[in-house]
Here is the input.
Amino acid sequence: GAVVSQHPSRVICKSGTSVKIECRSLDFQATTMFWYRQFPKKSLMLMATSNEGSKATYEQGVEKDKFLINHASLTLSTLTVTSAHPEDSSFYICSAEQGADQPQHFGDGTRLSIL
Amino acid sequence: DQQVKQNSPSLSVQEGRISILNCDYTNSMFDYFLWYKKYPAEGPTFLISISSIKDKNEDGRFTVFLNKSAKHLSLHIVPSQPGDSAVYFCAASAQSSGDKLTFGTGTRLAVRP
Here is the structure.
C-alpha cells in the first residue's frame, strides 16, 4: 500500500534553532501534501496545504514566515520551523494525497522538543 | 466551532463483541467521510471511507454507516480484537480530493481480552 515517510521522527534542540522536517511519498506521486500539528488530547490541526510547484496555503493563525513549507517535487515536501521556541514543541504530522477519490496517507509524525 | 464531533472520548469493549464508534457533523457540504486509526506516537492511518452517495461501506471486520439526514456516521468493528485498541478519528471533507480534512477529536477504544 501507499506509504508516507516522515523524517526525523524526533528532534530535540535548543531554542533559536531552525528545524527541517521532511515528508516523502514512497510509492506514489502526491499532488498535495498537508502539514498538521497535534496538541495533547486534541485532534490534528491543519497548518498548511502544499501543492507541488506552488506556494503553500496556510491556515488562519499559522505564521508563514515561521513555518516554511517547500514542495519541491511530487514526492517531497519539507516543513522548516525557523527560530524555534519552546512553544513550538509539538507533534507535527504530514499527509499526502494520492489523487482523486483517494484518502490522505499520513506519516508517522515528528515529535519536536525545543529546550 | 467543531464541525465534526466525536462525543465519546473513550469506549471499552470486550474482545469478540461489537465496537461502535460514532461521529456527528454539522457541515452539510461534507460529502466524503473517513475513519482513521492512531496508535500512540504514530500518525493516523486510514481505515475506511464512505462517500455521501452511499449509506454503508464494508471492509472485513469494519463497516461504516452514514445517515445523511441525521448528519451522523458510525464505525462498527466486529468482532473486536485487542489489537483494535487505539484512538479512532472521524474526518470529513467537502470534496473527495484536494480539500482539507476536518477531524473529530477522536475516540479511544480499549478492547479487553
